[in-house]
Recover the amino acids of this structure.
């Protein structure tokens, strides 16, 4: 079945450690996105990529980094510079890199940093 | 600036009641798209509908219906005869400025938590 996978579902880390969240899609979508969701809040865009080897900062990119070496994969690294990393992270993809189309979401990764 | 407002933070209804979730948006674009997503307790957002700014026809899909009114900048979502399985957080979203960026980015509202009690 086509879809978006994110692993792991729950992730625990100590403060000061970098951590990488995985996002893989087999929908042949060009565009991919990373969002952060805090309790009772909407989604805030961290980074997005419209095409392989290219990505742009979203609204809250500080303390995060990404790469887009393959069309299927868009990993997100939460660095130690991110002051409040505990959150629910959602990855999404949409068909073309250009234009407005619905985004399809993965199941999310809940990150807890203590 | 573009913005989506979902003024209802939480709604609680009893099963079989009809419920309407409000969404008001702000944009200067003449071409834009609106979306609704459902986020069940599992956390994954499920796409429900996409509507472009030139299509003001109301849409019905089973128990779900959407009322798009450009005059009031609203795109409301109604669930008829609600069921316990409808309990979720519902998000309304607006496409980022189509004319200037064409990035496919979406601007989300804060979400409305719907609880349907048996």
């Amino acid at each position: 079945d086509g879809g978006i996978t994110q692993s792991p579902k729950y992730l625990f880390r100590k403060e000061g450690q970098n951590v990488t969240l995985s996002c893989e899609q087999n929908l042949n979508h060009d565009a991919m996105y990373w969002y952060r969701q805090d309790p009772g809040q909407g989604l805030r865009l961290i980074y997005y990529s419209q095409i392989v080897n290219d990505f742009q900062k979203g609204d809250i990119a500080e303390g995060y980094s990404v790469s887009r070496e393959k069309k299927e994969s868009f990993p997100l690294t939460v660095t130690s510079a991110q002051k409040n990393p505990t959150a629910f992270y959602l990855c999404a993809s949409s068909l073309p890199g250009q234009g407005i189309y619905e985004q399809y979401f993965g199941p999310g990764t809940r990150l807890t940093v203590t | 600036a573009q913005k989506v407002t979902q003024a209802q933070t939480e709604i609680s209804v009893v099963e079989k009641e009809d419920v309407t979730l409000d969404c008001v948006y702000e944009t200067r674009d003449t071409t834009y798209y609106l979306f609704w997503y459902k986020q069940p307790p599992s956390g994954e957002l499920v796409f429900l509908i996409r509507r472009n700014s030139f299509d003001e026809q109301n849409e019905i899909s089973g128990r779900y219906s959407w009322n798009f009114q450009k005059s009031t900048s609203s795109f409301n979502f109604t669930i008829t005869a609600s069921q316990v399985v409808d309990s979720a957080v519902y998000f309304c979203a607006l496409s980022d400025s189509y004319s200037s960026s064409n990035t496919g980015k979406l601007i989300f509202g804060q979400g409305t938590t719907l609880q349907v009690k048996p």
